Amino acid sequence: MLKKIVAVSGKPGLYKMLSQGKNMLIVESLVDGKRMPAYNKDKVMSLGEISMYTENGEKPLHEVLELLKTKAGGEKLSIDPKASNDELRAYFADLLPDYDREKVYPSDIRKLLNWYNLLIEKGYTNFAPVEEEEEEGPATDTPEQKAKK
């Protein structure tokens, strides 16, 4: 699910990837439903590719979102993303005690909390990565079927 949700640099909110062209993506805003092109010059990042820095490496975003969902009981968060930097750090330290305090800024935490609330509001509640059958295909494919893929 998170592979189809993207963040576009310079644009607020999250977008659902609808289609892919030669030099652009067509994305739809989760906030207002407007569609727009995202060109090669725009930095487009799939949520499935994002990680949070920890003292022991990196933690994939889907795991952090699952932690937030568990803490909030599947509802929107009780903390306001506009809270003070100290409140945000304390909340995030409670959620992910080993997060790297030098690399993860309050603005990153604020963005994460906003993204989580937006995803929950729009009904995206399954953050676990899903293996796509189309990529792997069944083991019984003939060589001709594999060539068509």
Report on the architecture of this protein.
The chain is α+β, with helices and mostly antiparallel strands and 149 residues long. The protein folds into two domains: 2-47, SH3 type barrels (Roll); 50-121, Arc Repressor Mutant, subunit A (Orthogonal Bundle), CATH 1.10.10.1650. 33% of the residues lie in helices and 21% in strands. It contains five helices and seven strands; from the N terminus they run E-E-E-E-E-E-E-H-H-H-H-H. The chain has a five-stranded antiparallel sheet with strand order 4-3-2-1-5, with no helix packed on it. A two-stranded antiparallel sheet has the order 6-7. Helix 2 (85-95) packs across helix 3 (106-121). The longest helix is centred in the C-terminal third of the chain and has 16 residues, at 106-121. It is globular. 15% of the residues are buried. The model is unreliable at 132-140 and 142-149 (pLDDT under 50).
Features:
two-stranded antiparallel ribbon; disordered C terminus; single chain; SH3 type barrels; 2 domains
